[in-house]
């Protein structure tokens, strides 16, 4: 390997360096799944992650998972999801819909206070490629601004945590390039629970575990707005522990686990 390639490889490694090496004890639950480590993600080196949509994903080891949740906050389900995560000392990433944040800011603030990462998922969850580019970006910015106001008391389109997910995984090259130019990481996923379909919690648990076992690691997408997912989550986290999986918490490079 020549010197220039070695330097580039070291730069990429630094951009994705884990901030914590091992899970800490979980108060009140010595058998908790816990959060194994924190991974800082930089838009300059990893602008898009998740192989369901993009060629690249996060640098995870076998049996390492990142948990992400879409579409909340929702009053009847998100608190139950947060309770389950807190009981297991697991940190996740929530991609928030701005109109839901405007309606339930206290739940969104709880996510941040409890150490989760909070990304953005537009204001009203439209399929952005069906909109004119200017209107699509305005929809993204409106969602970011509503989230920022709930967390920090001011509306702005430059997000504190520069993480974004396209509703319905529906993106296009123009919007992807625009978000990359703004240094915002776009998250896809490696596996999902299909929890937008009607099924029982037990059915969802079996389906999700079977998909995870086939891949062995990756970004796992769930929806904190779904009652079946909220009911399934405690058993899911316990089963991940039993099977030897480890949780990685993603944060924006330079922000730390809980930016203020």
Explain the overall architecture.
- The protein has one domain: Alpha-Beta Barrel (TIM Barrel).
- The chain starts with a helix and ends in an 8-residue tail after the last strand.
- The strands form 2 sheets. Strands 1, 2, 4, 5, 6, 9, 10 and 11 form an 8-stranded mixed sheet that branches.
- β7 (163-164), α6 (173-181) and β8 form a beta-alpha-beta unit.
- It has helices at residues 3-15, 78-87, 98-103, 105-113, 133-152, 173-181, 201-215, 227-242; strands at 18-20, 37-41, 48-49, 64-70, 93-96, 117-120, 163-164, 185-187, 191-192, 218-223, 246-252.
- The protein is globular, with a radius of gyration of 18 Å.
- Helices cover 38% and strands 17% of the residues.
- With 260 residues, the protein is of the alpha/beta class.
- Mean pLDDT is 91; it is low at 1-22 and 256-260.
Write the layout of secondary structure elements.
Elements lengths: L2 H13 L2 E3 L16 E5 L6 E2 L14 E7 L7 H10 L5 E4 L1 H6 L1 H9 L3 E4 L12 H20 L10 E2 L8 H9 L3 E3 L3 E2 L8 H15 L2 E6 L3 H16 L3 E7 L8
Parallel strand pairs: 2-11, 3-8, 4-5, 4-10, 4-11, 5-6, 7-8, 9-10
Antiparallel strand pairs: 1-2
What is the straight-line distance between the termini? 41 Å
Supply the CATH class. Alpha Beta
Strand content: 15-25%
The biggest sheet amounts to: 8 strands, mixed
CATH 4th-level superfamily: Glycoside hydrolase/deacetylase
Q: Within the CATH hierarchy, at the fold level, what is the topology?
A: TIM Barrel
Indicate the structural class.
Answer: alpha/beta
Number of helices: 8
Write down the overall geometry: globular
Q: How many domains comprise the coordinates?
A: 1
**Radius of gyration, in angstroms, nearest whole number:** 18 Å
Q: What order do the helices and strands follow?
A: HEEEEHEHHEHEHEEHEHE
The helix content is: 25-40%
Which architecture per CATH? Alpha-Beta Barrel
Mean pLDDT: 91
Q: Would you report the number of β strands? A: 11
pLDDT < 50 runs, ≥5 residues: 1-22, 256-260
């Amino acid at each position: 390997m020549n010197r220039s390639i070695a330097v580039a490889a070291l730069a990429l490694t630094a951009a994705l360096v884990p901030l914590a090496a091992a899970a800490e004890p979980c108060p009140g639950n010595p058998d908790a799944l816990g959060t194994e480590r924190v991974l800082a993600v930089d838009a300059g080196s990893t602008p898009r992650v998740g192989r369901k949509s993009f060629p690249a994903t996060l640098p995870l080891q076998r049996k390492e998972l990142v948990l992400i949740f879409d579409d909340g906050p929702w009053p009847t389900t998100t608190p139950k999801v947060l309770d389950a995560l807190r009981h297991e000392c697991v940190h996740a990433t929530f991609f928030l819909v701005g109109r839901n944040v405007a309606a339930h800011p206290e739940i969104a603030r709880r996510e941040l206070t409890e150490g989760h990462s909070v990304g953005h998922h537009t204001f009203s969850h439209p399929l952005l490629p069906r909109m004119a580019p200017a209107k699509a970006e305005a929809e993204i910015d409106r969602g970011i601004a509503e989230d920022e106001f709930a967390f920090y008391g001011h509306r702005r389109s430059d997000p504190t945590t520069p993480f974004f997910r396209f509703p319905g995984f529906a993106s296009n090259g123009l919007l992807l390039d625009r978000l990359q130019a703004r240094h915002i990481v776009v998250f896809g996923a490696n596996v999902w629970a299909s929890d937008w379909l009607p099924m029982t919690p037990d059915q969802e648990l079996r389906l999700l575990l079977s998909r995870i076992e086939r891949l062995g690691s990756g970004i796992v997408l769930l929806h904190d707005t779904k009652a079946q997912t909220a009911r399934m989550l405690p058993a899911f986290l316990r089963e991940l522990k039993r099977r030897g999986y480890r949780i990685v918490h993603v944060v924006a490079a330079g922000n730390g686990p809980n930016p203020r």
